[in-house]
Amino acid sequence: MTITAYEPTDTTSIVMAPEVYRRLPDNILADGISSGDHKVIGRLWIFGALLFGLFTLVADILVRVERIDTDGVQLFSNASAYEQWFTLHRVSLVFLFVVPMLIGIANVVVPLQIGAPSLAFPRAAAAALWSWVVSGIMLIVSWAIDGGLIDRGDDVVNAPTQLSMVSFAALAVSIIVASMVIVTTIFTERSQGMSLYNVPLFTWSMLVAGAIWLMTLPVLVANLMIMWIDARGDAFHSFGGENLYQQVGWVFDQPQVFAFAIPVLGMLGEVVPVALRRRLKQYDLAMIAIGAFGAFSFGAYAQTLFNPNASTTWLYVLGSITLILPLLALLGAVALTGAAAGRAPQFSSHLVLAVAGIVALLVAGAVAAVRVADSLLAPVISWLHDAIEFVSGSDWNWLTRFENWIRENFNEVAGSSLSNAMVQLALVAGLLAAAAGLFYWAPKIFGHKLPAGVGLLVALSLLGGAVLSALPDAISGFLDQPDFVARGAQRDGVEILNTISLVGAIGVLAGVLALLAAVAGSFVFGDDRDEDDEDPRNPWGGHTLEWLTDSPPVPGNFAGPLVVTSEAPLLDDDFENPYAEVMS
Amino acid sequence: MTEITLTDPSSMVVTDGPAPFTPRPRTVQIGTALMTAASIMYFGGLFGAYVSSRNRFLTTQDGLEAAGERTSSWIPDSATVELAPPTIMAWTLLMSIVTMQWAVYSYKRDDRAHGLLGLAVTAIFGVAVINQVVFQWKQLGLVIDDVSGSAAATLIYTITASHVGMIAIALVMLLFVAFRALASSATSEHVDSVASVAVFWYAMVALYFIIWILIFITK
Q1: Do A120 and B27 touch (CB under 8 A)?
Q2: A541 vs A430, A501, B99, CA distance in Å?
Q3: Closest approach of B125 to chain A, Cα-based (Å)
Q4: What was the pLDDT predicted at B16?
Q5: With a cut of 50, which residues of chain A have pLDDT below it?
Q6: CATH code given to domain B36-47+83-219
C-alpha cells in the first residue's frame, strides 16, 4: 500500500516513518494477500523461497543418502521414485528457491536503488507472487504422486505427470512476469539523471538477469506445452522419445544454469566499494562484464533433444568457457578498486557472503570448463599434433594418445554426476548472493540488521557445504556415476565420495537453517532500531539511494523525487540530499 | 521539486495504487513490449522444435528411401491440410492490422466513436480467425499417436493452439482498453494502452505469417 495523498503538518518529521509501518500489521494474512507494496511482496517472495528451500534441501539430502549404497534402491520405493525426487530437487532448487530469493530481494531493493516509489506494475508483481506459490505447491504435489519428469520408457504419460508439466509451466510464467515487472521498473521508474549507464550494479545485474530469464524461460514453457499436448494424445507419447527430463534438461545445464547466478556479480560490485568506502573504479568495465556474463549464459539454443550435437559444438563450448572471462573482468575491476583504495575493507558478513558467492561461481565455472574439455582440448591437441608434424616432420604419437584419452574420458563425463556438481555450485553461488543481499539490505527489508555472527556461519556453511558436496560429485563423474539415473555401473570409491557429498549437503542445509533462523528471529524478536548505529538509515555507509530513506522505508519510499548524477549519488558533492537537514 | 511530508498516519489517505511522484513515460508500452518479446521467444521455441523435428524426420525418411524401404510423409497422408483456410486467416489478420492502427489513430485524436469502431472490427477479425482455426482442426484429421513416427500432429496442434491463446489474450486486452475509453472523458489519455495492445496484436499477426509459411505452405 502506498500513500497517494496526505496532509502535511510538521516539516521536521519529514523522514520519520510512522510507527505503524515499523511493526507487524494487525492482520498479516489480509495485508500480505491484498498488498501491492513492493516491500511486502518482496518479503513474501523471500519467506516463501526460504520455506520451499528447506524442502528442496531435505530432498537433496534424501537422494544423497540413497546414493551412499549404489547396489540398489533402499530408501525410495523404486528407481523411478529416486529419479523423480532427484529431478524435483533440481527443479525446485532453481524455480522455488534461488531465483525466487533473488526476485524477492530485487522486488524490495531495486525500486529503492533507483529512487522509485514502487514497482512499475504492483498488481502484476502480486499476481506473479501468488501464482508462483500456488504452482509451486502443485508442482511438489504432482511430483510426489509419481508425476516427475523422468525417463518413462514406454509407459503412457499419467495424469500426475501431465499436472507436473502444467504446474512447471505456470511456475516459469510466474518468474517471467516477475522478471518483466523488475525490468520495466528499471526502464521506466529511475530517478531524474539516472541513466542506464549509472544505475547501481545490483540493479544492473537484475536488469541483465531479468532480461535473460524473460527471453529464455518462454522457450522452457514451449517445451512443456509440447510435452503436455503430446501427453494428451490418444496413444503413447510420440515426441522426443521417452525421456521427459531431457526435453527440459537444458535449463539445468551449461550455459543456462549460469543465468541464475548473474546477480552474484552485482552483489559483489555493490558491497565491495561500500566496504572500501570509495567508488568502484572501472565501473564501466564491471557493467560490461556483467552484461557479457549474462549474454554468454543465454542457453535456450543448447537443447540437446533437438540438436544432439549441441554439447559438442564450438558455440556451446565457447559460450561456456567465455563465462569465466567476464567474471575475471569484474574481479579485475573490484581488485582495482581495492588497490586504489589502499586500505583494508570494512569487514562484514555480507562482504564475506558476496566473496563466497564469487568463489562458488568460479569453482562452478572451472567444473563447467572440465566438462567441455573434450570439445575444447581434443581439437586443439589434434591441431597441435598436425602442426608439429608439418613443421618438424616427426610424428608425436604421445600427443595422439593424449588426445584419444581426453576424447574417451571427458566425453563420458558430460552426462555424469559432474553435471550435478556444476549445477550445485552455480546455484549455491546464487544462494550466497541472495544471503549477502539479505544481510546487506536487512535494514531496508526487515527494518533492522541481521546478526553478523550468523552471517559468517551462513557463509561458511553454504560455501563449505557446496564445495564438499559438489567436488566429490565431480570426481564421481570420472568414476562413471551418472547424473541422476538410478541404473549404472559405478566404479569403486563412489560410495565413499557420495558419503562425503552427503555431509556437504547437510552443511548447505545447516547454512539455510541458520539464515532462516536469523531472518525469523530478528523479525520476531528484533528491535526496531539498532542503537549502536550513528545513522540507522545507512548503517554500512552505503553509496546508493536506498540508504537515504528510513529503515524500513516508509510507504512511497522517499519524501519526493530525487535528482542524481552518478551511480553513487551519496558520494557526490552536488547531490541535493532532501534528508540532510533532518539527519544533521 | 515537490516536497512531501509524512506525518501522522491517521492523516494519510492510503490506496492500493502506486504513489504518483513522477510521470511514468510509456510504462505500459514497455511492459507490453517485454511480454510480447517473451511471447515471440515462446513461439521461437515452438518453431525451433518444429523445424528440427521435421528435418530429423525427413533425413530418416531419405535414409529409408535409399535403402529401398517404405517411407512416410511428415504430415501423415490420412490428414487433410488445406491451404485455403490458413490463407484466408492470414488475409483476415492482415486486414486487422489496418483496423488496429485505425483505432490507435482515432484514440490519439480523441475520436472515441472511430476508436471504438476500430477496436470492435479488429476484435471481430480476431474472433473470425479463432472460428476458422477450430474449423480447420476438425478438418485436419490429425491424430497424436506414435504409429507414423511423425511428431507433426503434436507440434501443429501445439503451435496453432498457442496462437489461438495469443489471439484470446489480445482480445481480452482489446476489451479492457475499450472499456477504459468508454469510461474516460478523453481517449487520448489512453493512447499508451491502445498502442500497447497494438504492439501485441502486430506481433501476433507476424507470428501467424510464420505459421502460415512454416506449416501450411511448406507442409
Answers
A1: yes
A2: 25, 40, 56
A3: 26
A4: 53
A5: 1-24, 528, 584
A6: 1.20.120.80
